[in-house]
């Protein structure tokens, strides 16, 4: 296999994992992002590119490109609430720039990285931007025949994460401050999926035509309330961690399910086999400890 793939946001947390998985399967990969990551493999071509620069985006997507992934844009819900203009610009206009550059280029499929919040009334500007971008992606198929797959990711975690990843922030606080502070009652349920599992299925999707022009919910089978997650972390770290639940309701985060009714059909995929949650957390703890202590 020698097909060319461009991954916008390829230097980000999940983007790096997808780049690696593509390379393992023999694809030629270009990662486009505003800055390079230390985790990008040498076999990957890196191009510095801001998706808000329409000309730069259009120059990257040439007629020899088979697949385009878009992981770029605002990915943090709380940051999106605080910065609505930047969120709308990067998540909607940035996506539009990539779609526009991709049409009429004989691309086999455009893969848009969305979120479960696209189907929720609790996602504030982040959810709105993701849903609008989904609609734009669908419309480019109807108007120009640009095939697509929209992937709505659940709660992704793993090594190489950073401050805007929820689980990373919790683990870092537990390790460095011996405390986990949470502004709700901890009963919010999430389905956690390791980034490697998410990346594997993200590449599986382009290798099966049945996922063309459809919506996929990509999540794990590790379903648990957040308070149970906190207790698991506390036990792994030797119980020397204080758990503080402020029980203040943050209306932008869902409790049991992100979904509000929207008339669209969506398939759910779960990894099989999958990385065990306890093992995944342990690996993250080791990495954070090494970062903090330099060993």
UniProtKB/TrEMBL annotation:
Residues 5-214 form the NAD-dependent epimerase/dehydratase domain. Pfam families: Epimerase (PF01370). CDD domains: SDR_e (cd08946). InterPro entries: Epimerase_deHydtase, NAD(P)-bd_dom_sf. It comes from the Bacteria. Belongs to the NAD(P)-dependent epimerase/dehydratase family. This is UDP-glucose 4-epimerase. It comes from Seleniivibrio woodruffii.
């Amino acid at each position: 296999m020698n097909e060319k793939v461009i991954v916008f946001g390829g230097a980000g947390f999940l983007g790096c994992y997808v780049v690696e998985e593509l390379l393992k399967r023999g694809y030629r990969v270009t990662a486009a992002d505003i800055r390079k990551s230390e985790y990008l493999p040498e076999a990957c071509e890196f191009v510095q590119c801001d998706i808000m620069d329409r000309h730069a985006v259009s120059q990257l997507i040439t007629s020899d490109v088979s697949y385009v992934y878009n992981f770029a844009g605002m990915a943090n819900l709380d940051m999106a609430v605080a910065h609505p203009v930047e969120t709308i610009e990067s998540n909607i206009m940035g996506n539009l720039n990539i779609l526009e550059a991709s049409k009429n280029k004989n691309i086999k499929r455009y893969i848009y990285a969305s979120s479960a919040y696209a189907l929720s009334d609790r996602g504030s500007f982040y959810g709105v931007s993701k849903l609008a971008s989904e609609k734009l992606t669908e419309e480019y198929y109807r108007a120009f025949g640009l095939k697509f797959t929209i992937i709505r990711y659940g709660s992704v975690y793993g090594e190489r994460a950073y401050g805007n990843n929820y689980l990373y922030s919790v683990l870092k606080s537990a390790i460095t401050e011996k405390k986990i502070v949470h502004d709700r009652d901890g009963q919010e349920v999430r389905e956690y999926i390791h980034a490697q599992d998410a990346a594997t299925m993200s590449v599986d999707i382009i290798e099966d035509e049945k996922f063309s022009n459809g919506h996929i919910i990509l999540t794990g089978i590790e379903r648990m309330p957040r308070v149970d997650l906190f207790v698991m972390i506390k036990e792994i770290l030797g119980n020397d961690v204080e758990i503080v639940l402020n029980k203040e309701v943050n209306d932008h985060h869902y409790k049991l399910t992100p979904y509000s009714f929207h008339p669209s059909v969506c398939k759910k995929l779960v990894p099989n086999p999958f990385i065990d949650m306890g093992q995944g957390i342990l690996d993250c703890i080791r990495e954070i400890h090494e970062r903090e202590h330099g060993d």
